[in-house]
Amino acid sequence: MALISCKDLAVGYDNAAVAENITFELNEGDYLVVIGENGSGKSTLIKTLCGLIKPVSGNVSYDDGLKKTCVGYLPQASEDQKDFPASVWEVVVSGCLSSCGLRPFYNKKEKALARENIEKMGLKGMEKRRFGELSGGQKQRVLLARALCATQKLLVLDEPVSGLDPKVTAETYEIVKRLNDEGVTVIMISHDLTSAVGYSDHVLVMDGTIRFCTTKEYLETFNLKEKYNG
Amino acid sequence: MGEFFGQITLYFQFPFVRYAFIVGVLISLCSSLLGVTLVLKRFSFIGDGLSHVAFGAMAVAAVTGLTNQMLIVLPVTVASAIILLKNGTRAKIKGDAAVAMISVSALAAGYLVMNLFPTSSNVSADVCTSLFGSISILTLTKMQVWLSAALSVAAVAVFVLFYNKIFAVTFDGNFASATGVNSGVYNLIIAVITAVVIVLAMNLVGSLLISALIIFPALSAMRVFGNFRAVTICSAILSVSCSALGILASILWGTPVGPTIVVADMAVFVAFYLAGSFKRVKIR
Predict the structure, then answer these.
(1) Interchain proximity B178–A67, CB inside 8 Å
(2) CB-based burial of residue B125 (10 Å sphere; 0-12 exposed, 13-18 middle, 19+ buried)?
(3) B171–A73: do the CB atoms touch at under 8 Å?
(4) Which end of chain A lies in a sparser environment, N or C, as judged by fewer CB atoms within 10 Å?
């Protein structure tokens, strides 16, 4: 049984589809990169997968083990958070909310999980720093730590490297790859074709038409095209 | 100094002064807690907007001759708050524009209705009272004091119980929803408390003051502190102490209550602004 599968999915806002005929299946441990131009519906698809918006038609189904509460979502960086008074600790521990249910405060287990993920992302000693004053790469690691508090199964990343310099970009990819090697399924949107695709094992191309294939197949056709054009 | 205390003790023998003091402090506590969230959600002006809605509804209620105006005022204001806050960033008309629109239309409609069907001979004085609330805080009944006490307890309790959720929903609503937190419900809760606090505060202290009570303590605290908990606690303390000082000062010097409190909040903001810049210079 696939971890997550979409069949004839159409995504969009207010019943107007931005992208249609999306069909794919992901198994546990897969690494999917979603590529396509601006406005092709990548973010909309991701939001649909996370349950933030309803599909226009078709459906998304999850494996029983992966309830909706187990999606770790890494949204696009938002300017609003720049002057938000939130410490690194507060941001990371808020990832545990889903397991709290109606209980108003975090328990020891959740706090330990948050500490563990802070350490894992190399943020130890920065717990009291203000989130808004961190560098771009540090912010992404904080958000990754938060997403890991919410899930051990599926990470969904919306352009995690936009605005980062090449060195930090490579670091971020390495971290995501390491998590994927540990068994976390990854779905990532990227603009940065060459390096992002290199880490993945599946590619979803959204350029008007939707194409889902393995990275190997994608690279073969990509190289053919290059040759043809050159 | 002794003379000061003597005068204050003298004034505090009057029940209406005690009532004004208690209610003023309670309302500033509630509004400062909400203020942190509202300022961060870019809804600083919602206090002003909703109090104008309440004013418009009050005018309609007065004309229809209802004995209990709250029956109209509260539902209308709660509905407006929900419309404004529920959709957040996904709304078709964005926050500031929506607040401005609702605020201006309600104010205009209310004033129009009051003029077309005057219920008292001095319309502009009525308007002035509901906007600046300078007199109404001194004419509180015991019932109103209990009502605002109960409301404050409820607002503080909800805030403490849902503190972590309110943080998550304010900081990053999309992430919270993706992990299964029902952001809609918490936005609704925030909207309803906001509306109720504003309606009560509007009756008691006027619309000018309620806006100041919502924005100033939060902004002052955010100058100095970098985490949500410290900002929340600091803004509650600032708000309560500014209101207490403001009320005492207005008793001593006979100044209007609302504006005195606003001036106190403003002074604290300037002090915290300077302290904040000093702190940042030191870090660099």
Answers:
(1) no
(2) exposed
(3) no
(4) C
Q: Which amino acid is at B174?
A: N
Number of domains in chain B: 1
Tell me whether B230 touches chain A (CB under 8 Å). yes
Q: Which residues of A touch B171 (CB under 8 A)?
A: 81, 84, 86, 91, 94
Is B217 part of any domain?
Answer: yes
CA B164 to chain A, closest CA, distance in angstroms equals 7
Task: Report the alpha-carbon distance of residue B30 to residue A77 in Å, rounded.
Answer: 32
What CATH number is given to the structural domain containing B242? 1.10.3470.10
- Residue B7 forms part of a structural domain: no
Q: Which two tokens stand for residue B108?
A: 């205009």
pLDDT in tens, chain A (230 residues): 678 888 888 888 877 888 888 888 888 888 988 888 887 888 888 888 888 888 888 888 887 665 655 678 888 767 667 788 999 999 999 988 877 777 888 889 889 999 999 998 888 888 889 898 888 888 888 998 998 888 878 888 888 887 788 888 888 888 889 888 988 889 988 877 777 777 888 888 888 777 888 887 777 777 766 666 54
Domain enclosing residue B79, as ranges: 18-277
Sheet holding A57-62, edge to edge: A16-26, A4-13, A57-62
Q: Delineate the domains of chain A, giving CATH numbers in brackets.
A: 1-66+153-230 (3.40.50.300), 79-152 (no CATH)
Selected for mutation to probe chain B from A13, A70, A84 (highest B CB count within 10 Å) is A84
pTM: 0.84
- Tell me the β-bridge partners of A4: A26, A62
DSSP helix/strand/coil, A130: strand
Record: contact A150-B172, CB cut-off 8 A: no
Q: Which of A97, A106, A143 to mutate to test the interface with B (most CBs of B within 10 A)?
A: A97
From chain B residues 32-61, the ones with a CB under 8 A of any chain A CB are 40, 42
